[in-house]
Amino acid sequence: MVKTCQWVLRKRASDLPILTGPDATFALIEADSGAPNKGEVLIKSLYFSNDPSQRGWVDAFTENERLYVPLLPEGAPMRAFAIAEIVESKADSLKKGDLVRVWTGWSEYAVVDAQRCTKLAPLPNGLSETHHLGALGFTGLTAYFGINDVAQARKDDVVVVSGAAGATGSMVVQLAKKVIGCKMVIGIAGSDSKCRWVESLGADTCLNYNSSNFAQDLVKATPEFVNVYFDNVGGGILDLLLTRMAKYGRIAACGAITNYNKSGNNTIGIKNWFEIITMQVQIKGFRVMDYVGRFEEALQVLLKAVVDRKLKIDSEIEHVVDGRFEDVPGIWMKLFTGVNQGKLITKL
Amino acid sequence: MVKTCQWVLRKRASDLPILTGPDATFALIEADSGAPNKGEVLIKSLYFSNDPSQRGWVDAFTENERLYVPLLPEGAPMRAFAIAEIVESKADSLKKGDLVRVWTGWSEYAVVDAQRCTKLAPLPNGLSETHHLGALGFTGLTAYFGINDVAQARKDDVVVVSGAAGATGSMVVQLAKKVIGCKMVIGIAGSDSKCRWVESLGADTCLNYNSSNFAQDLVKATPEFVNVYFDNVGGGILDLLLTRMAKYGRIAACGAITNYNKSGNNTIGIKNWFEIITMQVQIKGFRVMDYVGRFEEALQVLLKAVVDRKLKIDSEIEHVVDGRFEDVPGIWMKLFTGVNQGKLITKL
């Protein structure tokens, strides 16, 4: 048993989570880790994965029955995916010093069931272990199944990817262009410098949604309309894309970060629904856990694409932020302020 | 050649079409029918089908490239599906007196290519020939392919149908409950009397969307959530249904009549898009012409269901309005004012 700092849920967020003051979303506390029983391990968190989906678990308006992962109870450490080191093991499968991927919480130390830990496999080419949280973790798998299975992108398709400079989007762009070989891949991102980076990953072009010409730029870039739209953002960009879908177009609905921090009445409404009917568009909401039985197969494809230099997962595709434990919620908040590029990871 | 009255497009509609005055959408004119050449026939219109999709062809905002049937040019007779009688034939396949289904216009007489005419097949049980425009025409086929193929409704499913007292909706309710045998079929309609009629067709219950308790009624009626939503209306009802979809729910997007007569900025926005992601919902826009190769197969199923008394297509499922030719646009407008029940047909 050790003393551990934890960031726990203090008050659900109705809009953008609040870091300080009387309405602060999280509180920093000190607690006992507890001691591992048989089959359990004591872990020390090394890296936290920062994911938009975490926002939903602390939302003030969402009903529990409508979430695939339940709401976080107030007082509990914020749920997070992490890379951790085994400090003490009461399980045969793990020993002190092993590095694992694990669902834990914003806690320096924690006792968890050993079965919830997956030992990190060695990566080729001296790639950073942090890729287990990103390009070779849930992020890469989300991109893989989303573009291949949900959107069914093929060589002849014009593909648009929003949030293209984000963790998932930057993988989708590469998979669509370099692995599937789609005819045209168009990224959408929030600044010119992000757009240039997305183009360096292989996008034929990338459009800045903060440009005043964005809508016209999109029309110009899609004279043959759009067969596949991989949607990471929802809101106004989605609404605009509905007017550019080709007949029988497919939309993979992966995220709606635009709306994560809006209370009900401020949500940006979708006004072009009718285009779904006239163009016979198909939309599928999905989550990566639907494909859990095929993770190994997908990881082999991703790893081969890295070795073949089709998939660039160098340090630019990650945004690793060094921080003290006090900084954990603040670093996570970068997801929602548009300053982030690639997979955002907190290094403790 | 004969003299014929025609209703032609005068001025595109930006909101609800206008019947009279300086901004009238249509104009009544007199014209020559023209004389049939070889392979053509002169037809006399007997019945017009009234369809919400006609609204799109005279819309002021829609771009041509986004319609599967092109916009109607100004000055042309309003396009309409009809039952007509052959008055004069220059084609081997048709003779004077034959009754046909045909895409024509709001015109008393017209010359058309004989290949565009389909001779009416005899119906069992002395059913009215007008069913060729409704339950046994595009309406019934839309319902059939929408509920079976697009929404993939099965016995275990809870099904919700909006516009349930409309032409398509009233067929969907019957197919879902009586032919597929779905566990629960819930209709949505605009008055208590319509709701009682929908229940008489087999719906387990039907909810009045004009009731002040509608949202709560829907929650109460769907404790296990909704597997299939057949959407004929779009707008606020669709938005509400998104909050009631079960995991892996399917939405057949058939119509959005709520928005047909709203100019761009007044369109009712969809705010609950995020539910599509959290519940992994699938949405498919469709139109019946995608299934043209299977029309015969479907009609056989529909006819057998009529003979087996599973499908009630008596006079109540049609709303045949006797009218003079001057009344044609006014009768069509009943589609948009909520006074109509079942398939709206104009009898000249």
Tag the structure with descriptive keywords:
Quinone Oxidoreductase, Chain A, domain 1; 6-stranded parallel beta sheet; 27% strand; 2 domains; 15 strands; homodimer; alpha/beta; Rossmann fold
Structure characterization notes:
The structure is a homodimer of 348-residue chains. The model of chain A has no long low-confidence stretch (mean pLDDT 92). The first copy, chain A, is an alpha/beta fold and 348 residues long. In chain A, helix 3 links the parallel strand 9 and strand 10 (205-208). In chain A, 23% of the residues lie in helices and 27% in strands. Chain A folds into 2 domains: 2-134 and 317-347, Quinone Oxidoreductase, Chain A, domain 1 (Alpha-Beta Complex), CATH 3.90.180; 138-289, NAD(P)-binding Rossmann-like Domain (Rossmann fold, 3-Layer(aba) Sandwich), CATH 3.40.50. Chain A has helices spanning 138-150, 167-180, 192-200, 214-221, 235-242, 257-260, 274-278, 295-307, 328-333; strands at 3-9, 26-32, 40-49, 79-89, 99-105, 109-113, 117-119, 158-161, 184-189, 205-208, 226-231, 245-253, 282-285, 318-322, 343-347. In chain A, the strands form 3 sheets. In chain A, strands 3, 4, 5, 6, 7, 14 and 15 form a 7-stranded mixed β-sheet that branches. A 6-stranded parallel β-sheet of chain A has the order 10-9-8-11-12-13, sandwiched between helices. In chain A, helix 1 (138-150) packs across helix 2 (167-180) and helix 1 crosses helix 8 (295-307). The first copy, chain A, is built from 9 helices and 15 strands. The A-B interface holds A 56, 66-68, 234, 238, 243, 247, 253-256, 259, 264, 267-287, 290 and B 56, 66-68, 234, 238, 243, 247, 253-256, 259, 264, 267-287, 290.
